[in-house]
Amino acid sequence: MGRATKVVLAYSGGVDTSVCIPYLKEEWGVKEVITLAADLGQGDELDPIREKALKSGASESLVIDVVERFVKDYGFPAIQANALYENRYPLATALARPLIAKILVEAAEKYGADAIAHGCTGKGNDQVRFDVSIGALNPHLKILAPAREWGMSREETIAYGERFGIPSPVKKSSPYSLDRNLLGLAIEAGPLEDPWTEPPEEVFALTKAIADTPNEPEYVEIGFEKGLPTTINGENLSPVALITKLNELAGNHGVGRIDMIENRLVGIKSREVYESPAMLVLIHAHRDLESLTLTADVTRYKRGIEETYSQLVYNGLWYSPLKAALDAFIQQTQERVTGTVRVKLFKGNAMIVGRNSDNSLYSHDLATYGAEDQFDHKAAEGFIYVWGLPTRVWSQKAD
């Protein structure tokens, strides 16, 4: 099944992507497989992954650190967009896919590969995200997905790998499927496939159980400049350092867990459990700061844009014309979203308890009911007459 001669393979070091290496060569006639693993701040030591790829038959094994690019170019724009898929999930995994696709295409062009391969199955969202993103970035590259076509069970996949010197997992593997990066952890499969089953504490890595969190609240002040988070408690931090610190602060108070039934792009419902402490707090705080600095009509219109944006990211359309158009709108709205938000972390909750901005549209003299009140109460009567006129006319005709 010779489809390509030189392939760049998205590589995680797991069974499926390791088996892809000999499978591509033996079954599909690929001459050379170059693996690429992306360091997204997942916390794993990636040197063993590099070695495993070479032992599995890769001609070259690339490990690329893209943590800063990930946070700055993908995570932060999502915060400006208040991107929450189905108003809950901050897209930590979905945001990583267009970046991985980008570095796969860059590697393919650098090494003269004619195809890119990945280990996605035919059931998940990632196959769509990779295929569409790669096609958008370089439509001339072939895309190979062996695991989508080989039809082997996990046991058969392991046995196939053993024939080519790929060791089977030495311990009983966890029933859970995990995908981690600096922006969050996605947990699925195993007992979680029953929507009635409560996730056990053992699956969580970024957040404490409520019983183990501090008994006193902690206040965190988050500074934003043009919609981008820049400071924690007055300290200027790089994007990666800021996410890292806020993950620790919020996770320590049990903030950042999500348990939801999610509508996948491929048409099925999936039970998903996520941890994303920093992203949830930042989106919550950013949205609050917008309420202080954006006009009412922009705020309301942007809510619809945010939902569309989240769907585009989730559905693998990061590199699409509509996404680019929405980016321009969102960036325009962020010009005045500068200020500080005070968040109270306590027992699994992140409560906004204060906000200020030099660009604030809040006027104390207009809002107050005290002696300083400057609102013209007499103007209300004429306003109400005009505002309610269509309703009164309709009511008269209805009699």
UniProtKB/TrEMBL annotation:
First and last residue of the signal peptide: none
Residue ranges annotated for the Arginosuccinate synthase C-terminal domain, each copy included: 176-394
Root EC class: ligase
Enzyme Commission number(s) from the entry: 6.3.4.5
Keyword Ligase belongs to the record: yes
Keyword NADP: no
Catalytic activity: L-citrulline + L-aspartate + ATP = 2-(N(omega)-L-arginino)succinate + AMP + diphosphate + H(+)
Pathway as given in its UniProt record: Amino-acid biosynthesis; L-arginine biosynthesis; L-arginine from L-ornithine and carbamoyl phosphate: step 2/3
Entry keywords, A to Z: Amino-acid biosynthesis, Arginine biosynthesis, ATP-binding, Cytoplasm, Ligase, Nucleotide-binding
Pfam families: Arginosuc_syn_C, Arginosuc_synth
Annotated SUPFAM superfamilies: Adenine nucleotide alpha hydrolases-like, Argininosuccinate synthetase, C-terminal domain
Binding annotation for L-aspartate: T121, N125, D126
Subcellular location: Cytoplasm
CDD domains membership: ASS
Domain Arginosuccinate synthase-like N-terminal: 6-167
Residues involved in L-citrulline binding: Y89, N125, R129, S177, E262, Y274
Binding site for ATP: A10, Y11, S12, G13, G14, V15, D16, T17, S18, A38, G119
GO-annotated molecular function: argininosuccinate synthase activity
Subunit relationships: Homotetramer.
HAMAP family, sorted: Arg_succ_synth_type1
Family of the protein in this entry: Belongs to the argininosuccinate synthase family. Type 1 subfamily.
Name this protein carries in UniProt: Argininosuccinate synthase
Originating organism: Funiculus sociatus GB2-A5
